[in-house]
């Protein structure tokens, strides 16, 4: 994978983590146990330190960067959705930052909070624990329900399982020229989208 030292500071990747070969890590980056870093993610520790705690995931095309002498941290079980940008901020334990959201300097996403897809969290904002924030700029929408917090944790555990699957079976191959007969499907996880979960709950018994 593209992994670069700068000023003699070398990225750290725990042996139980999975960092996709197309992700780029530069300088003062620490990827903890069981973490997942997806394709084309960029973790640029050339100014401030970047730390992913145990079980965190940073998905495809995310960008993480920060100012000098400031740490950008994703705590345990933090969940950073596709295309999100984190800059000199902290995402607390079990929180989720949705797809294409931006979390700016010195902002803090509280424990078990959810920042909605495409939200913009301004510099210095404190996202309260166990709340949903959405919009541009992001505002508190409401407290999260217990089933939403459980859904988030289930999704994070699915990414932790993906880390193990990648370590066990991800290999670079040449594509097939046509679909084979009886093409196998991937093993199905139990997790489903939140809208599908709500739809199933609303069906009459």
UniProtKB/TrEMBL annotation:
Region annotated Disordered, chain positions: 177-205
InterPro entries (UniProt xref): Hexapep (IPR001451), Transf_Hexapept/Carb_Anhydrase (IPR050484), Trimer_LpxA-like_sf (IPR011004)
Pfam families: Hexapep
Source species, domain of life: Bacteria
Identification of the protein by name: Phenylacetic acid degradation protein PaaY
């Amino acid at each position: 994978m593209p992994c670069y030292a700068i000023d003699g500071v070398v990225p750290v990747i725990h042996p139980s983590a999975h960092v996709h070969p197309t992700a780029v890590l530069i300088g003062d980056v620490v990827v903890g146990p069981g973490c997942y870093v997806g394709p084309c993610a960029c973790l640029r520790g050339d100014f401030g330190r970047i730390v992913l705690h145990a079980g965190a995931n940073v998905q495809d095309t995310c960008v993480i960067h920060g100012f000098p002498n400031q740490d950008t941290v994703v705590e345990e079980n933090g969940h950073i959705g596709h295309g999100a940008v984190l800059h000199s901020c902290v995402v607390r334990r079990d929180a989720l930052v949705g797809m294409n959201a931006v979390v700016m300097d010195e902002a803090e996403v509280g424990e078990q909070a959810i920042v909605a897809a495409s939200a913009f969290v301004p510099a210095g904002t404190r996202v309260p624990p166990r709340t949903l924030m959405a919009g541009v700029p992001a505002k508190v929408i409401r407290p999260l329900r217990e089933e939403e917090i459980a859904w988030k944790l289930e999704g994070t555990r699915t990414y932790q399982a993906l880390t193990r699957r990648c370590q066990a079976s991800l290999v670079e191959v040449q594509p097939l020229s046509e679909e084979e007969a009886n093409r196998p499907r991937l093993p199905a996880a139990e997790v489903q989208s939140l809208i599908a979960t709500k739809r199933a709950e609303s069906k009459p018994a």
